[in-house]
Design a protein that fits this description.
By secondary structure, the chain is mainly beta. It is built from one helix and 45 strands.
Length: 599
């Protein structure tokens, strides 16, 4: 198998103003510029001949972009990446007419895996790059198989491929999960398995979306229940073409697809438990050749083709509202597109430029706001007929400022909660009955919506005179990789026996996480990191509840303070032991030499 490398190092950027007023930045450099969906950065990855059909995109652990695609001029499988900055391209397989229906994925070691179709031999093929060396093999050569492939890698780096058995009209699946490659027929009911898409969830379960040509349905197959099962997701009209599937951080399934009866882009998900279907874009004949991805906030991103205007389009959701953009409209562009979202939630799309026969690439940041993340560090201080609450604002505001919070409270854990709207990061809940426990949780709000709530915490109001005062003389001593806390008993026990002490630790003065409850007046905190500041406070507890806290006090283990090796022995002992062993070895050597030299 021959391959060649072509580097593209031009740095010319062209700004094009379209008739609709949309500005597109076109760059031929591999360097990615900042842009949003209204102003995407667009690059030509490869323009040598007619290239770019059947493109597929994936990102490595450093957010570098990897693309597989078909070289129509040379009937070959090609591959590109921007690891070195500018785009570089290689021919991976040119043995016959190969490379259509390519799909790319990377494993945990950033090794590249590509599935594709061998038109010459009507086979499913697979290529892998390990340590910079490419190899390829035919996986299934029975009849006409391997069309419309899709590849995914499991958390254990096992490879999974879905594909179409054209001869029998079946959905097939291949994997190396058990070592050698094996193939199965997943669905053979009618003519099925066309335009499949595969993904793997965090548990290693397989999910496949595909088209049922016999019934014009969107179908879905999974082995999440142990055995394979198939389901009709959308059987209304003529739906299910060009589907793409992914899972979010909670292993919910998301599918984009084309409704060719109504010519709309549609979306299905089981994130609410049962499957639900939405129309994303119905503005003309849109939704062909879709590709779907989710970001770090589990927000859905879809790229697709506008058949009326021959444009590349993009859609994303905020709350329950979908928004769409035209990303590229210069010539006939946007078919065979594929989407990925990096660790910074930047969107990356590869696609085919039909007018020029080029492989193109667009990147941008999605500028649609989302609900914020949840607050952190929810803390309660019970008092006489009241509870003081405080929390830390979310680090993720969802693209819009946090405008307030909702404090939810209930007398029953898991029961109905009452909401109170507040503006700051603290709230004093008054008029409460002493001795009656209350449960709290808090959500943040911006103009888009409300975050998920914090985990619930509880507090029991009590008369201050019945609660212990703060422990006295709280101090911290650093010893190797541990911090020892000591304190004296409170000056007042609150009229009741002190039953223990709650130890709190945080990464700042406002954060309090209960890490232990003990009965003594000292605590050894271990498993800590060097160079990290820790903030400690301690509260006494009696039969009426938790008293006032002492602290916070700050303590830090300085870098380079480790005085033991991993065995736990002091380093000077290890060193001394080494000297003793060296001495013994030298003495043994001398005795051996004397014995050999004796007559």
């Amino acid at each position: 198998m021959g391959w060649r490398r072509v580097s593209v190092s031009l740095t010319l950027s062209i700004i094009m103003v379209l008739a609709a007023g949309m500005v597109i930045i076109i760059s031929t450099s591999g360097a990615v510029q900042a842009a949003d969906a209204d102003n995407p950065t667009i690059q030509v990855i490869d323009s040598l001949g007619h290239v770019g059909r059947s493109c597929s995109i994936a990102l490595d652990s450093h957010d570098h972009v990897h693309v597989s695609f078909y070289d129509d001029t040379n009937d070959a499988l090609r591959y590109a990446n921007n690891l070195g900055g500018p785009w570089a391209t290689w021919t991976i397989d040119s043995g016959g007419n190969v490379g259509t229906y390519s799909s790319i994925a990377l494993d945990s070691q950033d090794d590249v895996h590509i599935s594709y179709y061998d038109s010459t031999n009507s086979d499913l093929k697979y290529a892998i790059n390990i340590g910079g060396v490419w190899s390829n093999q035919a996986l299934d050569g029975t009849d006409i198989v391997g069309l419309e492939t899709s590849i995914a890698i499991s958390p254990l780096d096992q490879v999974h491929i879905s594909y179409n058995d054209y001869s029998n009209g079946d959905l097939k699946y291949a994997t190396d999960a058990d070592g050698p490659w094996m193939e199965w027929t997943i669905d053979s009911t009618g003519t099925v398995g066309g335009e499949s898409s595969i993904t793997v969830d965090s548990q290693g379960h397989i999910h496949i979306s595909y088209w049922d040509d016999t019934n014009d349905d969107l179908k879905y197959a999974t082995n999440a229940g142990g055995a394979w099962s198939t389901h009709v997701i959308d059987g209304a009209g003529a739906a299910g073409r060009f589907s793409s599937i992914t899972v979010d951080s909670q292993d919910n399934v998301h599918i984009s697809y084309y409704d060719y009866a109504d010519h709309d882009l549609k979306y299905a998900t089981n994130s609410g438990g049962a499957w639900s279907i939405q129309t994303v874009d119905s503005g003309g004949d849109v939704g062909l050749l879709t590709s779907i991805a989710v970001d770090s906030q589990d927000r859905v991103h879809i790229c697709y083709y506008d058949n009326d205007y021959a444009n590349l389009k993009y859609a994303t959701v905020s709350g329950n509202s979908w928004s769409s953009w035209t990303i590229d409209s210069v010539g006939k562009v946007g078919s065979d597109s594929s989407i990925a979202v990096d660790s910074q939630d930047r969107v990356h799309i590869c696609y085919y430029d039909y007018s020029n026969g080029d492989l193109k690439y667009a990147t941008f940041t999605s500028d649609v706001a989302t609900p914020p993340g949840p607050p952190t560090g929810l803390n309660t201080i019970p008092g006489n007929g009241q509870v003081q609450l405080s929390w830390i604002a979310p680090t993720n505001e969802g693209g819009e400022p946090v405008t307030g919070y909702k404090v939810y409270w209930s007398f029953v854990q898991g029961g109905a909660f009452t909401a109170i709207a507040v503006t700051g990061t603290s709230f004093l809940h008054t008029g409460l009955e002493n001795g009656k426990t209350i449960y709290y949780k808090v959500a943040a709000i911006n103009q888009v919506g409300e975050s998920v709530v914090t985990d619930p915490v509880s507090a029991t109001p009590a008369s201050i005179s019945h609660l212990p005062s703060a422990p006295r003389n709280l101090g911290a001593t650093v010893n190797n990789l541990t911090i020892e806390l000591t304190w004296d008993t409170p000056s007042s026990s609150g009229g009741s026996i002190i039953t223990g002490y709650k130890i709190f630790r945080g990464s700042n003065v406002n954060e309090k996480n209960n890490i232990a409850t003990i009965t003594g007046t000292s605590y050894l905190d271990s498993g800590l990191e060097e160079g990290v500041k820790y903030y400690y406070s301690v509260a006494a507890v009696n039969g009426n509840g938790e008293g006032q806290s002492a602290g916070p006090i700050e303590a830090m283990i300085a870098d380079g303070t480790r005085t033991t090796d991993p065995s736990g022995l002091p380093l000077e002992y290890i060193f001394a032991g080494g000297l003793v062993l060296a001495g013994v070895a030298a003495l043994v050597a001398i005795l051996v030499l004397r014995k050999r030299s004796a007559p």
